[in-house]
Give the backbone structure.
Amino acid sequence: MNQPERRKYLIDYLMEERHRKAEIPSEPNEQKRMLRAMCNVRMPNPISDDFLKVQDEYLQCELKEKVITDIDELN
């Protein structure tokens, strides 16, 4: 599963959990905002191991794409 597929899976899972349907934006940044918002308002209830596995993979890939600034490069 690639990153866009993971993101869509997570959004679909959270929408289904809340028994809601909404149009998923086509723009990746808008999808990220939607996923973040859905995670922020989710109640702290148990969730499936599959969701946690996909979420972990998704977040690990997002972390790898981040550019980390080295303090020595700022001088």
